[in-house]
Amino acid sequence: MQQSSTYRMQLKERICLTDAACDEQIIKISIAPLPGESLQPLVSGQYVCMGIPQLKDPAPAYFAVASSPYDTDAYEFVIKCTSGMAEKLAELDLESQIEVEGPMGKGFDLSGFKGKDIILMGVGTGIAPLRSVWRTLIQERENYGKISIYAGFLSTFHRLLTDEMDELADHNIDVSISLTTGHEDWSGPVGYVQHALEDDEPSGENTVVCLAGMSAMVDACTETLHNLGFNDDHILRNF
């Protein structure tokens, strides 16, 4: 499932996901194959390296694919526009060509865990590879037990894909949103995603967890999962 050489695709769509009042710009983009070419095979949660042809600065960078193997027209990404290639993708003209390497990485291959409950945990743009997983699970819903998502954001201004995540209830997928910074109008969990997980006390006996995010968050969640009785064979990372 790994494409070793670089090839070219086109920037087809770009949407800003964050509120104007937010101090971060996060975009959703899609890139599609050039005419006459097809999308490379994907495992949910894999990533690609993107660069601009003939351009060394900014340097190519790695981004997790947010679409699923069932989305065969384009790859989608959820990207925080901080600097470098992420910032360049926020200003690039539509139809511009992008040099791509991948998909690569382990991804989240759940094919060996059919019949088990699934938990997805991520914060901020770490939900990008998890979106790839939940879009796959929607297509394969009958193969798994209870599916739960624990997503964390700094504040309501930083929430992403709100409408899409609200619709997951239609597919019998539970969603818990935690805010690091709560406010009087917020009735959900306040704190980190692992705190919400601790409160729910899921059993590790028949459950597989997909973790995505910064190393500190992944380490903290892993410790919490160990305390709840999860073993490492059921704690998956996509890299």
Main traits of this protein?
alpha/beta, Elongation Factor Tu (Ef-tu), domain 3, Rossmann fold, six-stranded antiparallel sheet, five-stranded parallel sheet, 11 strands, 20% helix
Explain what the structure shows:
The protein has 239 residues and is an alpha/beta fold. The chain has two domains: 6-104, Beta Barrel (Elongation Factor Tu (Ef-tu), domain 3), CATH 2.40.30; 111-237, Nucleotide-binding domain of ferredoxin-NADP reductase (FNR) module (Rossmann fold, 3-Layer(aba) Sandwich), CATH 3.40.50. It is 20% helix and 30% strand. It is built from five helices and eleven strands. It has helices spanning 84-91, 127-139, 162-166, 193-200, 215-227; strands at residues 6-16, 26-33, 47-51, 61-64, 75-80, 97-104, 117-123, 147-153, 173-179, 207-212, 235-237. The protein has a six-stranded antiparallel beta sheet with strand order 4-3-6-1-2-5. A five-stranded parallel beta sheet has the order 9-8-7-10-11, sandwiched between helices. Helix 5 (215-227) links the parallel strand 10 (207-212) and strand 11. Helix 4 (193-200) packs parallel to helix 5. The longest helix has 13 residues, at 127-139. It is globular. The chain starts with 5 loop residues before the first strand and ends with a strand. The relative contact order is 0.16. The model has no long low-confidence stretch (mean pLDDT 93).
What global shape is seen? Answer: globular
What CATH architecture of the largest domain would you give? 3-Layer(aba) Sandwich
The percent range for helix content is: 10-25%
- Low-pLDDT segments, ≥5 res: none
The CATH class assignment of the largest domain is Alpha Beta
Order of helices and strands: EEEEEHEEHEHEHEHE
**In percent terms, what proportion of residues is strand?**
25-35%
Sheet with the most strands, sense and barrel status: 6 strands, antiparallel
- Supply the CATH superfamily name of the largest domain: Nucleotide-binding domain of ferredoxin-NADP reductase (FNR) module
Beta strands, count: 11
Write down the domain tally.
2
Structural class: alpha/beta
Number of helices: 5
CATH T-level topology of the largest domain: Rossmann fold
